[in-house]
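input
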Amino acid sequence: MSTQPRYLQLDHEGWKSKIAAAMALLSPCRLCPRECGAERLKGQRGICRAGAVAEVSSANAHHGEEPPISGERGSGTIFLTHCPLRCVFCQNFPISHLGNGRPAPAPELAAMMVRLQARGCHNINFVTPTHMMPFIVEALPLAVQDGFRLPLVWNCSGYESLDALRVLDGIVDIYLPDLKYDRDECAKKITNAPEFVRHNRAAVKEMYRQVGDLQLDEDGIATRGLIIRHLVLPNGLSGSPAALRWIRDNISPNTAISLMSQYFPAHKAFEVPEVRRRINASEYYEAVEAMEELGLEEGWIQDEPLEGDE
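output
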């Protein structure tokens, strides 16, 4: 299988078709499962608060992602502002909820990608990109014209529209979604996302259909495939054993899983008793043991400071 980024196979007509399909989902907006219908090209803003142009908080080399994403030279991380979710514990709430950032029209967004490539980054990593997808697709052929050739990482919440993901088929190389919950009642209470589990699982299946299991080059850097992040939450809210079992049974026993322990109460988490503390060691190691018992051997566990057992 070719290790070239998939988007390099698109010709002028291919890009034209992709951009048209992406823009068709923008106004009325159907870019996420909420399908709020905001007429964004006419100035309306939906629940995510995004408008008619990409907004970027930062663009820099990031060394704190999973090893095959960051490598030695870093991941070219572009943080998009706003978010379709409303997680009470959001650790990036100044960006995702308050919208701290600046407009980045397509030529500027393309220039960011080219600059990060020139700095030696292994990939371009779009963080929270769901609601900005059409602008990213619009910018990509401009970057390609200027010599851009890096793999694309779609670093998202996993609360994705299948129509939007189908536009990305043939463009995105590496999907990096969250699989946060096993039960909708938890998702609704602390993420305010209707039917999160159903939409999340359908999206992850589609991502896997497009790119398959994680593939690495000779230096251990990701070139294509799926990595699922699972953030362990306090009081069993993430439903880790069941969520991990679903991955094994419905995606692949070879799925690369990033089992994350770094939860801490941020934003409005202190208003919700179940999430107002860090996870403890026993909660995290329950998830580690479930991963091992299920034979999920691909991926990473973390060695983060945890609270003592309660």
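quick obs: Residues 109 and 229 are 26 Å apart (CA to CA).
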